[in-house]
Give the backbone structure.
Amino acid sequence: MKTLRIAAVTVLAFSPLALATTANAASGDATVSVLHGVPGATVDVYANGKALLTNFKPGTLTDPVMLPAGDYDLKVVAAGAGADGKAVTEAKGVAVPAGANITVVAHLTADGKPVLTPYVNDTSMVPAGQARLTVRHDAAAPAVDVRANGKPALKGLTNPNEAKALVAAGTIKADVTLAGTSTVVIGPANLDLKEGTNTIVYAWGSAADKNLKLAVQTISGMNSAPGGVNAGSGGQAAAQAAASDTGRYVAIAGVAALAGGVVLFGRRKATNR
Amino acid sequence: MAAALLAGAGTAWFTRPAASANPADGFASQASTTVTTLPPDDPALPTPPVGSSGAPNRSTASSSGRPAKAGVPLLGRSLPPVSEPSKLPAPTSFSIARLGITMKVRAEGVAGDGQMALAPPPADIGWYRYGPRPGDPAGATVLAGHLDEPDYGIGPLVQLTNLRQGDVITVASGKKAYRYSVKSVTSIKKTALDLSSLFTREGPPQLHVVTCGGNFDQETRHYDANVVVIANPIG
């Protein structure tokens, strides 16, 4: 621990700018959120034998927390069953790397069995004016397409995979169809894709039980600046400035000529004498 | 006066270690402000890759899916509260009484070429609508307008270089008038402009007013510099 700290301080001392950009992600920690996407089961979640979440209801997403990086044994049990209770589902040795932003999702497989899937959220910078849209298939359902404003945006997505795209920031009307068809299975829903965010949409539930739903997670802070400010293509101001400079030179030249004239005049006067 | 303004600009960015007399240097790009090592761009893999490193972003549950929050997990350390996007009104009017300037403010985004979008009339000024609004607790409210345009001529912002430290700029937003005191006016070569500082959403609240300046290239029809005014909120 001590060496870790020293290492961190050294790094920060040599890159004060890095300090500013990573102030919320202390060295050695990962940002972890948990989504409950198994219909009908209120559960408790244990991490390495310790209670992480209790009375966790379907369709809920936790606030993100910072957890020390490492491997975690995650276990989901019926609410109140205790750390040694029968696992609804569990995942051993889930890697939580330092600095990563992870969402662990308890959901159904395509054929309806509870499972835990850890996803690494893409927190790379988003170009100015855009948003990243990520869609994750966590439902007991076949392959789907995701449509934005009626047009297929992400195609052929299968459980437990994700697809993502950079799109113009703004509100879209999204729905989910069976892959290659126009049979809507979820939605439509209005999604506010805020600039500089990763908006993550989870399709969860079960097609057979007719309880397919969407859950939405938004990660912000990946905004970047526009490429510049091009604020003048006329050139008139430059021309005017140049003209006023020329005017000044003409005036100076005029004064000089006048002075010369006086001298000349004086000389002439002198010769006339 | 120019020297005083340039010296002032040197201290304007919070990352600058010391005042600088070189205007190009005052806003010089600091590559490291935007560089962060991030998780690999790895679609469709449900297993977290190893060795990725973090970014300063925050996560919220929201929107149409509306998962109810489960609250704070029992393990781990909570993150600071998420700063919600501003609900303050967008700016509508920009004025500098001492220079007799009043301009309509238009909300602008990003143009096709990735630069800040700006409507042609130099009589209007654009507000970068993805950034902070007047009255927001952090970051720069960016207003930018054309110095000149073909068919329109020269706009009021040609006078920005006549601003003095302490001059008052007023930006009206909704029913409120936000007043700012000019801290610096600097001309910076576009190639040296630190755009992430210019458009920052962090740090103390400021007003950044931008137009063009420097030399005009008749072939590319572009100026080679930006004039940047930095002003601090009054009160």
